[in-house]
């Protein structure tokens, strides 16, 4: 019994709002500002955006409610929370392995995430020192190429970012993150709005909006749908237990539904704003929207280099991107740290062990683009949806409905039924259909 009461048990966020900020801090990250705009570019715009929104609504939000519920009801790290709830429901405690697999997914994401966050840190330094302020568009493009060609430079910033992440996690989540996100998330939001404004004035805003919202479904292939679904998981930090781990600190017994809707809405709005800040500039500068991962690191510097106050805005923007990345990366290793802590490791040791592992993997993704791409593709498009599928099945089919109803705290029986329907049928079938399709076993 005494063991069951160590670590996360008893620790809670100060209020429901702190949970919202921490979860939003986890959700809003490179996925919104770096990845979403460039995959929208690669997969052709509007139809992709609509598919992504549908995935958020029908799969992402239901799974997120399930994750928060598991964390709060199990009051422990994802692995132990799931096996505890499984035993309670007279199911196999092997369900805890979903949480263990999540620890691995988190590490694998961190192995490329921290490299990209390192690029953002590098661009803070470049912006502050005016490195790209007098360059033309082409030079700025090759400037990014130079960073990618310099393993030493990437290693430096990747290491700095891993250290930053580890120091925050080692110091404990509740202390640091809550306060930090409280100030930083609104700042990020204001800064993005300023950039959208700049983009509306100086960019080809109409072309940008057309690109993001004109829907031409003929451009939507199976791969695009898989990527849209994978991104819905990635951007909401789902499928690996990050939100579950945070849910373990959720105070009180209030309804989870509205809380989750708030987080998902903030995350989605920020992703759309990031697109609206970038695409108009892409079109105004005759760049191609489908150019891939370099989108943020090329188009925005081009904009800043032409902009009065560009040094200041550039520095601010990349600082905020780095911070958004930090509040996300923390949640990538927190589940593993909480898990190890629960099984006898002290927190700093667990943190530096996991961060060190991710750091090593990051070195591999710096040196081999194939490793970088494989980690990104495998986690977002396979491991997270698979984790989400198992979580949906667990809560939808393994836990008894009255217990689930009680633990979610959802008052309206209509809302509860709708959520449970999505979780039991739509989310699993949707995920399976997309998987089969991407394996070529199902065509539409
Ligand atoms: N959601 C974050 C982003 O969009 C990334 C992230 C943080 C994440 N924690 C996660 C993704 C857990 C999947 C699972 O940048």
Write a structural description.
With 444 residues, the chain is mainly alpha-helical. It has a single domain, classed as Orthogonal Bundle (Hydantoin permease). The protein has helices at residues 16-27, 30-42, 46-74, 78-88, 96-128, 137-149, 151-170, 173-202, 205-213, 222-235, 242-247, 256-284, 295-305, 310-342, 347-367, 369-398, 401-408, 413-438. Helix 8 (173-202) packs parallel to helix 12 and helix 15 (347-367) packs across helix 16 (369-398). It is globular. Tryptophan binds at residues 26-27, 29-32, 109, 234-235, 237, 240, 242, 328, 331-332, 384.
What are the key terms here?
single chain; 444 residues; 0% strand; globular; disordered N terminus
Write the layout of secondary structure elements.
Layout: H1 16-27, H2 30-42, H3 46-74, H4 78-88, H5 96-128, H6 137-149, H7 151-170, H8 173-202, H9 205-213, H10 222-235, H11 242-247, H12 256-284, H13 295-305, H14 310-342, H15 347-367, H16 369-398, H17 401-408, H18 413-438
Helix pairs in contact: 1-8, 1-12, 1-14, 2-10, 2-12, 3-4, 3-9, 3-10, 3-12, 3-16, 3-18, 4-5, 5-7, 5-14, 5-15, 5-16, 6-13, 7-14, 7-15, 8-12, 8-14, 9-12, 10-16, 10-18, 13-14, 14-15, 15-16, 16-18
Residues 26-27, 29-32, 109, 234-235, 237, 240, 242, 328, 331-332, 384 line the site of tryptophan.
